[in-house]
TrEMBL record, chain A:
Pfam families: Dyp_perox_C, Dyp_perox_N. This is Deferrochelatase. Residues 233-411 form the Dyp-type peroxidase C-terminal domain. It comes from Streptomyces solicathayae. The gene is efeB. Belongs to the DyP-type peroxidase family. It is an enzyme of class 1 (oxidoreductase). Its EC number is 1.11.1.-. Keywords: Heme, Iron, Lyase, Metal-binding, Oxidoreductase, Peroxidase, Signal. It catalyses: heme b + 2 H(+) = protoporphyrin IX + Fe(2+).
UniProtKB/TrEMBL annotation, chain B:
It holds the Pfam family Peptidase_M75. Residues 140-378 form the Imelysin-like domain. Residues 1-20 form the signal peptide. The keyword Ubl conjugation does not apply. InterPro entries: EfeM/EfeO_iron_uptake, EfeO_Cupredoxin, Imelysin-like, Imelysin-like_EfeO/Algp7, Imelysin_sf, Iron_uptake_EfeM/EfeO. This is Iron uptake system protein EfeO. It comes from Streptomyces solicathayae.
Length: 424, 384
């Protein structure tokens, strides 16, 4: 995307364009999209493809001040799992977190767990399950989080529950399935190859048997937002570009402001979270059958963007600054925009999912929404409160699963481990 | 019941591994063909084996199907236990079968059309390459063999209480005796299943029948009677006949138990297989879908696994004390969990599985995984 074009367009952002004058009914004319032409789109596609090919085999560094899998470039696939801790022994839980960290270090490098998938004692099952043999690291990232339920009496963590790790309020329209919600620990595995992501969760679950048990898990494909805004913005299953204005992984200032927990004056129950973040996971079912019967103009009005280019109402280009008053008052983009929520900004990393059908001939499909922020009370909660109340999109979606997790800072080096600051 | 031949395959692989580990196996010299393989020519009415006697150790059969039907070829122990097998050898195709064999008598069988007993050739394996075992291991195997025999012996009278009730047309008495009659079998299932032909007769479920098998005629055993008692709620002539058949088939099992091939690793893997049985059939409620007595089988499977483990403990503790401690802990945890479902620990009266809630089933399943995973490492701890 050319900077010049962006600037030119954004200078006009204060003045309503013809589109917004026409109003919501004018959706579909998409003047800006036409002006942008197909060349830009083609260019973007090529750019994105090159980036992916170059990166597909690559390994994302596991060690660092922040965990990978938050601000790092979003991969194509997801396997997310929430675990219940079964052991009551704090030392055993700590040992598991150490074992998991060592396994994660190896897997993110594309290496086998333990002594590998073959060549060991013939009488023993191999340490590694083997299905990722011969596959590249595929930019695998493993990101751990701790749910509110971990901070009960069991492990003496009650005093260390951060204030920001609140229980999410009930939002209007929620229809949450307990069997797909919450959990003591979560692990987000993202990779460009689904087999690599699935392998990672499977091996961690295996290492954890007896200490933790999988509570629920979710596969995701087709990232629905990007932390590399220069690349083509992905589309959700409603066919719309989502995450256009997401926080870029390179935008240190916005990350510090909205995503990373500050280390300044770190004391009290949240001190161990310095450099961490808070994750909200929501399984959002989409009624795609109904959506697909919805006229294009209405679809575009609901989002507040045009379908082809992704430009906000009245604007030409996807990345143009939205002029919110031009959108319908209940349009999704308008309600979700920071300007409508006192500046609340979250980093989204969601994925589409399709888990077969629901037995009624409808696809069990939707968006597995993942959002990282410095404080959910200033991030997800105000945004979702406003969306749940008024978003016209609610007619087509339902929140059916939910989880909230404190995501600790990164693992510094080979001696460090997931959650050390919390347990030390 | 599940993969019928699992134990034997495991036992054979274990025997192979033991000899391999001790380093006393050598490939047989050029006896059959240039590569040391024994050739087997299978036709529709013959099964020609190029040699009838070969040295112990690595045995390779080069099979060629010159017949018109798909065939399968087996290497069998004298009591029909399978050493190894190869199915689906199409007409005009070749296949290789390998096994590690100890000295003794065997049979090679071709089964044109993959049916019946097959066309058999007696063969002899000579020479001493039997793996040496420690006295501790021998003691463990001997004690386990005795346990298996006792379980089988004690099962017959309990089965008779059940089958007598069926023969008397007494539905309530039969229902009462049903679960109890299965406990000995469930405790020693991997050994029982190693006789490939008994398990399908006594413990198959309706969905285990093959295409072409008629449930009315070909379905026999406990679960067929279970369906009659709990679902159809009637005992007819056919059921009384089936009670006789069950007695007969289980008497056959009791007779053959003594000959079962048992090694320390097959004991260890058998323990793991018992947990696999729980994980695949009991924890889902599939096994006892009419009577819902799954927790009785569950308990019996765990008891059988624990017996193997206790007997192997002296050996395993030396090699992997951490694993043994973990197994002690997980066996105790699972038993405690199971005890929540019976009011009186001296009986095998458990809560019917259809009254166990989804969350409790998940808790049981988590407990099984917690034990099954470390249990899968027991065999390695035994041979290390």
């Amino acid at each position: 995307m050319s900077e010049t074009v962006d600037e030119n367009e954004s200078t006009g952002s204060a003045a309503p364009s013809r589109r917004s004058v026409i109003g919501w009914g004018g959706a579909g004319l998409a003047l800006g999209a036409a002006a942008a032409g197909g060349a830009a789109v083609a260019l973007n596609r090529a750019g994105d493809a090159t980036e992916n090919v170059a990166a597909a085999g690559g390994a994302v560094p596991f060690h660092g001040p922040h965990q990978a899998g938050i601000a790092s470039a979003v991969q194509d696939r997801l396997h997310f799992a929430a675990f219940d801790v079964k052991t009551k022994d704090r030392a055993e839980l700590i040992q598991l977190l150490k074992d998991w960290t060592r396994a994660a270090e190896r897997m993110t490098l594309g290496q086998e767990v333990g002594e590998g998938a073959y060549g060991g004692l013939p009488e023993a099952p191999p340490d590694d399950t083997g299905e990722a043999l011969g596959l590249k690291p595929s930019r695998l990232t493993l990101t751990i989080g701790f749910g509110p339920s971990l901070f009960d009496e069991r492990f003496g963590l009650k005093d260390r529950r951060p204030e920001a790790l609140v229980d999410l309020p009930k939002f209007p329209g929620d229809n949450l399935d307990r069997a797909r919600s919450n959990g003591d620990i979560c692990v987000q595995a993202c990779a460009d190859d689904p087999q690599v992501a699935v392998h990672a969760i499977r091996n961690l679950a295996r290492i954890g048997f007896g200490k933790v048990a999988v509570r629920w898990s979710q596969l995701g494909f087709g990232k629905t937002s990007s932390t590399t805004p220069d690349a083509q913005t992905p589309r959700n299953l409603f066919g719309f570009k989502d995450g256009t204005r997401n926080i870029a992984g390179t935008d240190t200032a916005r990350l510090e402001k909205h995503v990373w927990v500050s280390g300044k004056g770190a004391e009290g129950p949240s001190a161990w979270m310095a450099g961490g973040s808070y994750l909200v996971a929501r399984r959002i079912r989409m009624n795609v059958e109904i959506w697909d019967r919805t006229p294009l103009a209405e679809q575009e009005d609901i989002f507040g963007r045009d379908k082809k280019e992704g430009a906000p109402v009245g604007k030409a280009k996807e990345h143009d600054e939205p002029f919110l008053p031009a959108m319908k008052p209940e349009a999704h983009v308008r309600l979700a925009h920071p300007d409508s929520n006192n500046g609340a900004t979250i980093l989204r990393r969601g994925y589409s999912f399709t888990d077969g059908t629901d037995g009624l001939g409808r696809l069990d499909t939707g968006l597995f929404f993942l959002a990282y922020q410095r404080d959910v009370r200033k991030g997800f909660i105000p945004v979702q409160t406003s969306l749940a109340r008024s978003d016209v999109l609610n007619e087509y979606i339902q929140h059916v699963g939910s989880g909230m997790f404190a995501v600790p800072p990164g693992v510094r080096d080979k001696d460090d481990w997931w959650g050390r600051a919390l347990f030390s | 019941m599940r993969a019928v031949r699992l134990s034997v395959v495991t036992a054979a692989a274990t025997a192979a591994a033991l000899t391999a580990v001790t380093g006393c196996t050598e490939k047989s010299d050029a006896k059959g063909d240039a590569h040391g393989a024994v050739s087997v020519v299978a036709k529709d009415d013959s099964c020609e084996v190029s040699k009838k006697e070969f040295p112990a150790g690595h045995l390779e059969l080069a099979v060629e199907n010159k017949g018109s039907k798909v065939t399968e070829v087996y290497i069998l122990f004298p009591d029909d236990r399978i050493v190894t097998e190869r199915e689906n050898i199409g007409p005009g195709t070749k296949a290789k079968i390998t096994a590690e064999v100890k000295a003794g008598d065997y049979e090679i069988a071709c089964k044109p059309g993959m049916k019946g007993d097959g066309i058999r050739q007696k063969v002899k394996v000579t020479g001493g390459t039997t793996a040496k075992r420690s006295p501790e291991m021998d003691a463990a195997v001997a004690a386990y063999r005795q346990y298996v025999q006792t379980q089988a012996d004690e099962t017959l009278p309990k089965v008779k209480v059940f089958t007598d009730a069926v023969r008397a047309g007494n539905i309530e008495a039969a229902k009462k005796a049903y679960a109890d009659s299965r406990i000995g079998w469930e405790r020693t299932e991997p050994v029982a299943e190693s006789f490939g032909d008994i398990d399908p007769k006594v413990d198959v479920r309706e969905d285990g029948l093959e295409a072409g098998q008629d449930p009315a005629k070909d379905w026999t055993g406990w679960h067929r009677l279970e369906k009659a008692l709990w679902q159809d709620k009637k005992i007819g002539d056919r059921e009384k006949q089936l009670a006789d058949t069950l007695d007969k088939d289980l008497a056959d099992w009791v007779k053959r138990v003594g000959k079962a091939e048992i090694t320390p690793t097959s004991m260890a893997n058998g323990a793991k297989e018992l947990l696999d049985e729980v994980a695949s059939g009991k924890v889902t409620g599939e096994e006892e879908r009419y009577s819902h007595t799954d927790l009785v089988d569950f308990k019996a499977n765990v008891e059988g696994a624990q017996k193997s483990f206790e007997l192997l403990k002296p050996v395993a503790s030396k090699n992997d004390p951490k694993l043994v401690a973990e197994l002690d802990k997980q066996f105790a945890a699972l038993n405690t969990l199971l005890d929540k479902y019976r009011a009186d620990k001296t009986t095998y009266v458990f809560t019917p599985y259809d009254q166990v809630g989804k969350e409790q089933q998940k808790e049981l399943s988590d407990g099984v995984n917690a034990l099954g995973e470390p249990l899968s490492k027991l065999a390695a701890a035994v041979v290390k």
